[in-house]
Amino acid sequence: MDNGSNNLLGDFLRARRESTSPAQAGFLHAPSRRTPGLRREEVAMLAGVSNSYYIRLEQGRERNPSAQVLSALARVLRLDPDATEYLYSLAHPWARPQVETGVMDQVSPSLLRLVNLSRHAPALVLGRRFEVLAHNPLIEALYEGMTHIDHCVRMIYLSPAAVDFYPDWEKAARAKTAQLRTAVAADPDDPYLRGLVAELTAASAEFRRIWALHEVQARGNEIKELRHPRLGDLSLSWEVLSVSGSGQKFVTLAAEPGSHSEWALRELVESLTVPASV
């Protein structure tokens, strides 16, 4: 899944070790070093395991660490709850919930009606593979100038306008890539997800760079910072509701009352309702 690697646990531990500074781990007066992050022996010492055991973990020769070892590694590497859950899923893949692999999502008629009834707010249905399964006309108006709007991850990496559309493109790309890695961990044999990672790896050097960071993040509510080509900078709340039993998400975007973003959304609504002059 990771560019041919079958050592996802070791790859993840190495990436997070290299991104954890000695100061973060409590080595306040560590001398300068040629390579970034912690040394293997430092992680082993702080986690209470032998250096040889930790090396076997990174090399993929030890694949069954105990819950106590995983908890210690999460602490040493300063993993947040999403990254900790991901670590456990890599170490104990048999504990993952079974997902029906290869079956594409279908949106129920009632959910489609809900999307179409959202006339004053951009609304969409997001599949578990990051596909935009349905959306109302306001989504197209909001994402004016963007390509690949039928897929959240492809849009960030393959749309030529993405770098300008997201004021902080790096933050947006890293968040979506971290969410993709979490989805892959939950269903590593899904051919669609495997193909998506292979496609983006071949098409984008930026994806290859960010994917190699091994960051993980669950999907949820967040603030979207966007730069509309006509209406300027927008700050919108991305509100997510899970659809029971489907893995799908119903998403709406809302603006703070009285803000420029609220005015911009009204402008988009009016642009869709006012007939074009002949």
UniProtKB/TrEMBL annotation:
Molecular functions per Gene Ontology: DNA binding
**PROSITE patterns in the cross-refs:** HTH_CROC1
Which SMART domains does the record cross-reference, listed alphabetically? HTH_XRE (SM00530)
Q: Matching SUPFAM superfamilies, A to Z?
A: lambda repressor-like DNA-binding domains
- Domain of life from the UniProt record: Bacteria
Pfam families per record:
HTH_31, MLTR_LBD
Q: Where is the HTH cro/C1-type domain?
A: 37-84
Instruction: Give the protein name, as stated in the record.
Output: Helix-turn-helix transcriptional regulator
Naturally occurring in which organism (per UniProt) = Herbidospora galbida
| Lineage, opening ranks | Bacteria, Bacillati, Actinomycetota, Actinomycetes, Streptosporangiales
